[in-house]
Specification:
With 320 residues, the protein is α/β, with parallel strands linked by helices. Helices cover 49% and strands 18% of the residues. It has two domains: 203 residues, Spore Coat Polysaccharide Biosynthesis Protein SpsA, Chain A, CATH 3.90.550.10; 70 residues. The longest helix is centred in the C-terminal third of the chain and has 33 residues. It binds uridine-5'-diphosphate (UDP) and magnesium ion.
Length: 320
């Protein structure tokens, strides 16, 4: 971009951070955030979304909110998950630019300045792309590698590889994202879907500063399923393919058995073949039904129109 294009001004920058039992890392997070925010040339607000923590996180946050009115808290009624917590924060963020990031300092706050620079040059979405992941198990690295590549392929290149939820978004992007009220949220895909101008900045993802991961294998699988089922019909295609393969196999086997019967009169009761056929076809039908059921279940959850999260209380939200 040419340097003589006037910089886009920023009046207010919002930072949205979901918190689930993060009391160990909070003090360090605040120090890092304030260090970075004090160097930015704009007003700021930080929205902490307490996603049903049962440790001291809320007490710490509410003490901060009394000391500093730019620190805002949204406390959810229970654990709704990281994506819902981000949504609660995005719904209430007032900034013309909104940054979403994790609490554990795996998303280094010093990158915010670089993101802001790109925004000011005209970019609407600046996302951080992990170049290397430190301190994560080989299982997480391997599954993440396969998952992101599959997803990128399936979303026709829409969803960038190796990106998390560390992202800067312009107000128009956030407004559109806030209108997308689907239940199974995969925000990194949804923000990519919005369009506008997007770019990546790369960073080496450090290890979590304090505490343990709040993403259990179950939560990781749920997020992966949300990504796959919301952004692709690949599972439906696979079930169709499986059905077709089994059908062709069935037709061929029928022809074979007819030939046996009429040409060779070889009609020894085929117990083994029968059992094999039954179990293969039965299995294939169940797989297909399961996949269809997964989509129907999601349609059912969408039509219920339940709120995506429930707010128990909030602090400093009136203050701009
Ligand atoms: N988180 C949340 N609700 C959850 C799980 C996680 O709000 O149910 C938050 C957590 O506090 C952190 C962010 O989401 O700020 C990312 O979680 P974590 O670092 O545990 O995930 P990982 O980096 O291990 O994938
Ligand atoms: Mg983390």
């Amino acid at each position: 971009m040419s340097p003589d294009i006037p910089k886009r001004p920023i009046d207010l920058l919002s930072i949205v951070i979901p918190i689930f039992n993060e009391s160990a890392v909070l003090p360090e997070l605040r120090i890092e955030l304030e260090r970075v925010l004090s160097t930015l040339n704009c007003r700021w607000e930080v929205l902490f979304v307490d996603d049903g923590s049962w440790d001291l996180s809320y007490n710490i946050l509410s003490e901060w909110s009394q000391q500093e009115e730019r620190i805002k808290i949204i406390r959810l009624s229970r654990n709704f998950g990281q994506q819902a917590a981000f949504t609660a924060g995005l719904d209430r963020a007032l900034g013309d630019v909104v940054v979403t990031m994790d609490a554990d300092l795996q998303d280094p706050p010093e990158l915010i300045q670089e993101m802001v620079d790109h925004y000011q040059k005209g970019c609407d979405i600046v996302y951080a792309k992990r170049q290397r992941r430190e301190g994560e198990s080989w299982f997480k690295k391997a599954t993440a590698y396969v998952f992101y590549r599959l997803l990128r392929h399936e979303s026709a290149g829409l969803i960038p590889e190796d990106t998390g939820d560390f992202r800067l978004m312009s107000r128009p992007t956030v407004d559109i994202l806030n209108q997308m009220r689907e239940r199974h949220r995969f925000l990194r895909g949804m923000s990519a879907w919005v369009g506008f101008s997007q770019m990546a900045i790369t960073f080496e993802r450090p290890i979590r500063k304090q505490g343990k991961t709040k993403y259990s294998v179950k939560k990781m699988c749920t997020l992966a399923a949300d990504a796959v089922f919301s952004f692709s019909i690949l599972p439906l295609r696979i079930s169709l393919l499986l059905g077709m393969v089994v059908f062709c196999f069935g037709v061929l086997y029928s022809i074979y058995s007819l030939i046996q019967k009429y040409c060779y009169a070889d009609v020894v009761p085929g117990w083994t073949a029968l059992v094999m056929l039954l179990s293969i076809i039965g299995g294939a039908i169940l797989v297909c039904l399961g996949v269809i059921g997964e989509y129907i279940g999601r349609i059912y959850e969408e039509v219920k129109h339940r709120p995506l999260y429930i707010v128990r209380e909030s602090r400093n939200l009136g203050a701009k």
